[in-house]
Specification:
Length: about 350
């Protein structure tokens, strides 16, 4: 069994932290449980406590909440957050400009109000309405001013990343140090970007290690109470509108009812991401082995190195403990298990493989 230091490290993901995912509990109860999750994460890695990192984003609209959770946990962590390209922090509008010089500065200032000593600041996705030159000038100015230690990219294509490298080299800017991308046992498209990452001495943070819950055995209750549409629902509504045909109809009431427990139960998410090929691949995993096999493949058989990380989130303390137990103590997959996973991945049609970039 490898030692703690030989595995890719764990970054605690917080996209599902907040009252919207608290199953009708009070705000105080939500903070208490999530503080226990942060504490659990922090205590799990005594050799790496100085590297304990909380990952959030302006788009999650929960930086203040996560800061309150960390304060309640009484631990010292590194912070990473993300500035996004969506005008007004609204993914659904179809408008960009969030990474203009002025908008980037506004987002960074807001992040720093809640995330002290910001360690890594990401560009969450490309901005279709702002030149890379303008965005990178703003990033470099903030970096030189010491407002964050390093910066990174998320959801950019390889072509865009290479262009960013060229601009940084030509203008003497600090190169991005981290790339955060969707990477898991059945979504391996991002592997094309690893040669570029290694060439520039960067690290990779893998998000969505469990395919948004598709490999998990738990399912939402069939008739949850109605709620107002959440930020995540609006996001997937917009995504579906962009990708669906004109004659496609959706039931907004049903969406509202079934999205309160996150992405997996969202019918918009299902139509967009739960593609037949991915579903078939996940069905090849024994029902009670999905979390174990997905995490251990990423830990031991992916392109990740010890200098990289996996972004692990959870909706409850028990779920976090289960995921962390697998990552820390899970016995390596057998050769037969690895072979089955590779065969299932190879059988996924290209049309059913989600892109790693926006």
């Amino acid at each position: 069994m490898e030692s703690e230091g030989e595995h890719p490290r764990v970054v605690l993901g917080t996209m599902t932290m907040g009252d919207a995912y608290a199953d009708m509990r009070s705000h105080d109860a939500c903070v208490l449980e999530q503080a226990a999750m942060v504490r659990e994460y922090w205590e799990r890695f005594p050799l790496h406590r100085g590297e304990a990192t909380i990952d959030t984003a302006r788009y999650y609209r929960n930086e203040a909440h996560v800061a309150a959770v960390v304060e309640k946990a009484r631990v010292s962590v590194k912070w990473s957050s993300k500035a996004n390209p969506w005008a007004g922090n609204d993914f659904t509008s179809g408008a960009f400009g969030g990474l203009s010089e002025r908008a980037f500065e506004s987002q960074l200032t807001a992040s720093l109000r809640h995330c002290p000593a910001l360690d890594t600041y990401f560009l969450h996705a490309p901005d279709a309405e702002t030149s890379l030159e303008e965005t990178l000038a703003a990033v470099d100015r903030a970096h030189r001013a010491g407002r964050f230690r390093q910066w990174g990219l998320s959801n950019f294509s390889l072509e865009q990343c290479e262009r960013i490298s060229d601009i940084c080299a030509a203008r003497g800017y600090a190169h991005p140090a981290v790339y955060q991308g969707m990477y898991n046992v059945f979504c391996r498209q991002v592997e094309c970007i690893f040669p570029w990452i290694r060439q520039h001495g960067m690290s990779f943070w893998a998000y969505n290690p469990l395919l948004g819950g598709l490999v998990c055995t738990s399912r939402p209750s069939p008739s949850p109470p109605r709620r107002e549409p959440t930020m995540m629902q609006r996001w997937f509504n917009w995504l579906w509108k962009c990708h669906s045909s004109k004659d496609t109809e959706t039931d907004t009431d049903t969406e509202t009812e079934t999205t309160r427990k996150g992405r997996f139960s969202n019918p918009i998410y299902q139509k967009l991401f739960l593609r037949p090929g991915l579903v078939a691949a996940c069905a090849s995993i024994p029902p009670d082995q999905g979390v174990r096999m997905a995490l251990l493949w990423l830990r031991d058989h992916s392109c990740l190195r010890s200098t990289d990380a996996v972004v692990l989130g959870a909706s409850s303390l028990a779920q976090l403990q289960e995921n962390m137990d697998v990552w820390q103590f899970g016995a390596p997959l057998s050769e037969e298990e690895v072979r089955r996973l590779d065969m299932a991945h190879a059988a996924i049609p290209m049309a059913d493989r989600p892109a790693y970039f926006y």
